[in-house]
Amino acid sequence: MPESPTRTVDEHLAEILELVSPPPAATLPLAACLGLTLRADLTARLPAPPFTNSSMDGFAVRAADVAGASAGRPVELPVADDQPAGPRGASVLAPGTAIRIMTGAPLPEGADAVVPVELTDQPRGSVPLPPAVRVLEPVVVGASVRHRGEGVAVGAPVMPAGTRLGAAALAAAAAVGYGELPVARRPRLAVVSTGDELAAPGEALGGGTIPDSNLTMLVALATEWGADVPVAERVGDDPGTLRAVLARAAEAADLVVTCGGISAGAYEVVRQALESPRVRFVQVAMQPGKPQGLGTLAASHGDVPVLALPGNPVSSFVGFRVLVRPALAVLAGRDPHAETATVPVRAAEAWRSPAGRRQYAPVRLEPPERPGEPFLARPTHRLGSASHLVGSLHLAHALAVVPAEVTQVEAGQAMAAIPLPPWSPELPVQVAPHPR
Amino acid sequence: MPESPTRTVDEHLAEILELVSPPPAATLPLAACLGLTLRADLTARLPAPPFTNSSMDGFAVRAADVAGASAGRPVELPVADDQPAGPRGASVLAPGTAIRIMTGAPLPEGADAVVPVELTDQPRGSVPLPPAVRVLEPVVVGASVRHRGEGVAVGAPVMPAGTRLGAAALAAAAAVGYGELPVARRPRLAVVSTGDELAAPGEALGGGTIPDSNLTMLVALATEWGADVPVAERVGDDPGTLRAVLARAAEAADLVVTCGGISAGAYEVVRQALESPRVRFVQVAMQPGKPQGLGTLAASHGDVPVLALPGNPVSSFVGFRVLVRPALAVLAGRDPHAETATVPVRAAEAWRSPAGRRQYAPVRLEPPERPGEPFLARPTHRLGSASHLVGSLHLAHALAVVPAEVTQVEAGQAMAAIPLPPWSPELPVQVAPHPR
């Protein structure tokens, strides 16, 4: 009898998420916040712009003084001062005069408009301050003026807690007065790949050895996601050695992931090293990736969650995407369920899925026959989702999700798929606001 | 008269791309290749899997020996040996016997199938080698066997030059025998933000000073893209100081980007420091971002291209996306035009666009009224694409591209938009193969 799954993917994920909790917020300088999650609602400390200023190079005036200007009958005003951008602050404009002003410079007190240099008799560029300027067109009150706070008023909400801080968000935070932000620190994930059969990538192979693609892959997946990887080790089938490596991993990390050594065989080093009241090995109703382990490791700073993934590379890949990333999201202060958000697709061809297990099939996406219909999903390899086919995994655009009760996917069948970022440049995307 | 644009965006970009060229390929270990571009076609050095092996924990047999097995009439075979995964290599199976075998272990010579442990009288897990096994079901030839090279044959193409090396691609390279890869090194981008009016983010402001959001933003944009940023400096309006900083920047970088100091004013520090036969300042038919500069700086390792962006934050943002990223792509060995690939959208509301200039309007994307139609694009701020509105730029999902000849965008109008990755978790996507 095949061993029956003991739990659904959702039940397993729920138990994983109980093991992890977000760390307290840390305050970091903006330059260290890229990719991190904001841990408090941000409101504007400064208005944007912080003072009323000119949006053009030109001459600050009172609009009333140039109301009658035309090319044929220009209005000549004495140029009383020069107002560069910079820390000097605003000049004062007397009626009937002009002040030369640069883009971004504070609007002089008494001025209510700026005449761009192009609407005067003056040349553009780096020239001495002229004694007078002839204005060739009238301007309305407020012309070429950016008012204090017109972009963002003081106290206005700028971004909510939970925002992932990309470049534009960091710029916005700077513009409204922040030099540092309360964030969740970058999660630290330790990765340990196990098995006597593993050789380092590129190493000459003996009789029964294979290149270890898992360690490279899991470290890269964690890095792509935005985690730090303080420990990345390959260990053979000796439980004592593995226990020592895991103890070091737990000291250095917020989450430990192992790979391999958890199935039904006689030499399952992760089971042998970890099976205890703290760590359980279970059968999850998913394919690939049925055997899974979860629990905690003791460390001097407290219990550290450990997830044990199976060793087949595609199983590891799917396990990272479906189980590890949600745990990292919690550690990063983000919504774990957003990590497995799906898009609608249709099957491009028929394929099989095992009874009673949710299948995650690596698929290519192809354009639909009619524009606007869902993309077509085709398994990346003629052999389907067999879990050892790491050699074609990089071709996948998404993981098609086949429900547990479906054993035969039919061509044209509607289904959900988890897209696999990061996007390569040859994969432009259609963006949709999150349906949740 | 407003100064007329001297060139289209496409003409300007073409001239920029003539300034940059991809570096020679470097060979780096897999762990250093994440995010880099492969510079040669990769073919399999090893077959995947590298030897014929078991996909299950169980017993290697000759299928013919268990052809008549059933639960009622099991076939009993003596267990002659134990075949763990690992470097020992394959055993030899005598007819009429079984060899216990673990997942991934080499199939013994003489065996042609594996009976999973679940189809025998033996328990799963870590137990002593039994003297004999009773097989409860027949298996076909090839059952639970993964054949050498069935995933990838030796010499088969695995991925082409130009592939961006994500986690799965690195795993595939490892699996087919590579420990290092020929790649384009990570481009080095120096960023210099200019202006007497700039204060560091979070610093108290004087009368005419504003927080410098550009330096933070451009460094973050470069980092998000995958460039290194060896120099990131804020400089005031002194041309001599700026020249010294730029000389250092050129020594450390493959590309230098400045920000601010290039428009029509009297105090334009970047123009003053750089205007020469090597560097030109031009008017590009785009909004925001009309003033632009381009040229080269002399460095001891040769000429280094420099791009001068305008200082308004949204202008800088758009300039980075539309002009700097394509140059970085060339430096990284990738297709520069993929950086500005667009998706179809429709305008959610009407807005204006300047005559004779291509507009890049930061927009939110909203779901269409009917599923399958293009997403609806709505400017992120009630004030439209005004270039100083950095406080709302992080809300944008995309830059809507309004053609130069359009002065009025109508609600419902079809247009293209450049999506703005990296995607936040609340932005699931629909993926399409690249149309090019």
UniProtKB/TrEMBL annotation, chains A, B:
Keyword Magnesium: yes
One Pfam family of this chain: MoeA_N
Cofactor(s) this protein requires: Mg(2+)
Keyword Transferase included in the entry's annotation: yes
Keyword annotations: Magnesium, Metal-binding, Molybdenum, Molybdenum cofactor biosynthesis, Transferase
SUPFAM superfamilies listed in its UniProt record: MoeA C-terminal domain-like (SSF63867), MoeA N-terminal region -like (SSF63882), Molybdenum cofactor biosynthesis proteins (SSF53218)
Protein name (record): Molybdopterin molybdenumtransferase
Organism (species): Actinotalea lenta
